[in-house]
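Run log, item B.
One chain of 268 residues. Sequence copied directly from the ordering sheet:
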Amino acid sequence: MRSYQPDLTPPWPAPEVPAEPDLVVEEAATGFCGAVIRCEKTAQGPTVTLEDRFGKHRVFPMEPRGFLLEGRVVTLVRPSAAAPARPARTASGSLAVPGARARVARAGRIYVEGRHDAELVERVWGDDLRIEGVVVEYLEGIDDLPAIVRDFSPGPDARLGVLVDHLVPGSKESRIAAQVSDSNVLVVGHPYIDVWEAVKPSSVGITAWPRVPRGQDWKTGVCRALSWPENTGAAWQRILSAVHSYRDLEPELLGRVEELIDFVTAPE
């Protein structure tokens, strides 16, 4: 009887797909899913850096049949270097600087209230901040701001800018902000209860942000009113994915962030 011989021929070549920025793929071996950040040429061969929805970066070799695109096995290749037809702009609307390296971080900082604020600022102003060497950190609330400012010890060569949610007259936030402002500290804010509201409703696909009764968790109330699952983390990812540039944000936030960047990067 003739014995069975397994087919040991290699699989058919997979389609080649240029690893363009923001292309979302899954690495076949690990299951890591993320958007393409950059491609690099190394001694071991070309690599691609992916960023997942939590902001984590991982570098993978661009091996044949190494990735999944919408469930299909593909081979990522370096995109061809095509000259832009016109000067590109960053998500904030600034003129992009091709090949610019990130500046060494300044002593000055920008603080925002929470992780969502930091992710939104990175989404729109990330390229500008890296060129200027400005680091954004988040506070997890504003209650400890006076102590944080004292520990930071701001000065002419280390200015501190702070972005505050719901900074309106008579609010708790306005009273805390009044305790820390001086010539080397700038506290600005937007009028929204949460930074979610700083994203234009039309960008998210809704007519308006719902009004949530006082005493109810605002984010959970928004999810209920919009008939979204009551998972605020998933809701935020949905909102953040709708932000592609400054055009998706309200002017009340745009102006304040630009003001903070100018303040911490001003010459001594």
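Observations after the first pass:
- The first strand starts at residue 16 and ends at 18.
- The longest helix spans residues 115-132.
Flagged for discussion on Thursday.
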